[in-house]
Amino acid sequence: MSPPATYTHTAIVLHWLVALALVATFGVGLYMSGLALSPAKLKIYSWHKWAGVTIFALVLFRLVWRATHRPPAQPVSMPAWQHRAAEFAHYLLYALMVTVPLSGWLMSSAKGFQTVYFGVLPLPDLLAKNKELGDALTLVHKWLNFTLAGLVVVHVGAAFKHHFFDRDNVLARMLPLIRKP
Length: 181
Fold this sequence. Notes:
Layout lengths: L8 H25 L5 H30 L11 H32 L4 E2 L3 E2 L8 H36 L3 H5 L7
C-alpha cells in the first residue's frame, strides 16, 4: 500500500494544536520566570503547569496516532541525507515534546509543589521533595525548552525552504490550504 499524499486531518489538527500550545506555553514560561513572588505569579505557574500536562497528553496521543497512521512519503526529489535529517529531527522533536513537560513535572515534584490539573485533579508527585534536585531539574527544564525552541525554528525554516526554494509539497501536506508553488 502506498503512503498517503497528505497527513490525516487528525494529524494536522494535532500538529497545529500542539505547535500553538508549545509557543504559548514557552512564552508564558519566559514571562513568569521574571516575576516577583505573588499570588498572580502562582496563578500563572498553575496555568503553565496545566498547559504542560495538556501538551504531554496531546503529544502521547500524537505518538499513538503517528504509530497507527502512515505519514506521507517524502518527495522523490529530496536527497537521502535530507530525508535522514528530517527523520532524525522529527524523532528529536517528539522526544523533546515528551521530556519537556515531564521535566517540568519532575521539577515541580522535587520542589514540593504538586501539580493539580485545572485546580481539580491532583497528579501524583514523581519525586520526593529535594531542593538540590529541584534546582538541577529547573536547569534541565530550561535547557530542554530552549533546545526544543531552537529545533522548532529549524523545523519551520526547513518547511519554508521546501516551499519557497525546493518548490515541493512538504509544507502543503501539513497546511492543506496552500498549494504547491
